[in-house]
Amino acid sequence: MKTLNNLIYLTKGNLPSKMAHTIQIAKMAQAFSQKLKNFELVTSGDILSAIQGMSSDFQAWYGLHHKFKLIRLPIHLKIKYPFPHNYENQTFYKIAILYACLKSPSVVYTRTPAIADLLLKIGVPVLWEWHEPIPETSSSFYQAILNNKNLLGIVTTLPHLAENYIYNGLLRDRILVAPNAVDLKNFLPYQDKQLARRKLSICQEDKIVLYSGHLYEYKGIPTILETARLLPDYKFVLVGGWADDIQKVQEASRKIGLSNITLVGHVNQTELASYLYAADVLILPTSKYWDLAGATCPLKLFDYMVSRRPIVASALPTIMTVARDKQNALLAEPDDPDSFKKAILKLFENPVLANTIAECAFQEVQNFTWDNRAEQVLQFTTERLQEVDEDVVSYRTGLMKYVKQEVFSRLGNYLPSLQSSQVR
Fold first, then answer.
1. Does the pLDDT of residue 406 top 50, yes or no?
2. Spatial separation of the C-alpha atoms in residues 158 and 229, rounded to whole Å
3. What is the pLDDT of residue 25?
4. Taking the domain 6-181+370-393, which CATH number applies?
5. DSSP 160
6. Measuring CA to CA, which residue among 266, 258, 273 is closest to residue 238?
7. Domain Glycosyl transferase family, which positions (predicted)?
8. What pLDDT is recorded for position 418?
9. Any idea where the domains of the chain sit in the sequence?
């Protein structure tokens, strides 16, 4: 039986970042590193960070409890962290692929389609994690990935995403559905509401409805603002967001005369728990008009569940795969501030219900841990490895093929410019 001896996780190159997907990557990497003797997480960096590897700042940013091998490919002389939300670097992709070929791991894991595509073309076994449906506008690109014999499989978060991949040609046994998860250690020790509020200098008497995450419109921020207008005696605390988005929300709040909105800005994963513990109610108002509303499995939902605070969430089919009305959350109509208002008031007026659903959510989320998820992924990967033709997988051959492609590609770009200069 083939064994999974080592695994390299190639990222988009943008860690650390405020993007939620990088939290998922860092947490999965930590879990993988505890179960594999040889594991590396590869991202981009500058010369100093490449020498440092995993720093204490990186650990604090993602709330990591264990150090593991973090490879920072120094494609920048000096860069300011965190990376911007739109960071993408083709040079990183190429060097990361070259690095992976030189290391010859059993499997390369990635969430980046461009990296998966290049690796598969040169014969490297890939496990691809993907949380979106295959877009119709570029289906041929994605179908080429799905049909490649070196694709071990796809890891995704929702059953209907799996059905989308099957529709696009992927065999069912090459898909693992594994919802997102939570790092329980980030929420230890438990903080009661009074302690958390003292820690954050928040008034003990305030009725706090809290949201954590980005401040994009499709995350339901307009719904929060309008709900706050309907509940002027309640304080709405928003934790997270880019500087530009924070400014937009501040301006929108002023326009409708809100004085009960507090914008905290981004906090790292080690600080997040205190804010959730300081809340009376946690809100997840994802908009049904978001293009990816049918593909979201929000990390914040699992963080909310472990905090033992009652949740009000949008009644979207994806969210309802985890949240169940009046059992572990209250569900409100998406984009309907009045519906959210009624659900919030119901929790404040009925503390028994609030405590019951909060405790139910807490008990259920104990099974949704990154360690459990990583175990599922590694078991799935080992099973899929048994079907890989060892004669097909040759890193040396693949590396030479890749180098040749790069050389000829660069020559192809160079010759026209050389000929042009000679004409002049």
1. yes
2. 34
3. 98
4. 3.40.50.2000
5. H
6. 266
7. 193-359
8. 34
9. 6-181+370-393, 187-365
Question: Does 424 score more than 70 pLDDT?
Answer: no
Only one residue has tokens 């960096």, namely 45
Pair of tokens at residue 58: 């990186």
**Fold of the CATH domain 187-365:** Rossmann fold (3.40.50)
Give the 3-state secondary structure of residue 212: strand
Backbone angles phi, psi at 133, to 5 degrees: -70, 160
The kind and range of the H/E element at 374 are helix 370-385
Counting residues of the chain whose pLDDT is more than 90, the rounded percentage is 80
The H-or-E segment that residue 210 falls in is strand 208-212
First vs last Cα of the chain: how many Å apart?
64
> Rounded mean pLDDT of 356-365?
98
Mean pLDDT, the chain, whole residue set: 91
User: In 3D, which of 83, 79, 66, 102 has the Cα closest to residue 11?
Assistant: 83
Query: 347-350, long-range: CB within 8 Å, 24+ apart, which pairs?
Result: 347/280, 347/281, 347/310, 347/312, 348/207, 348/280, 348/281
Which residues have CB under 8 Å from 392's CB, separation 6+? 123, 149, 150
Please check whether residue 155 is in contact with residue 132, taking contact to mean a CB–CB distance below 8 angstroms: no
Whether 6-181+370-393 and 187-365 share one fold: the answer is: yes
Cα→Cα distances 83→13, 14, 17, 277, Å: 9, 6, 5, 29
- Across the range 166-193, mean pLDDT stands at 95
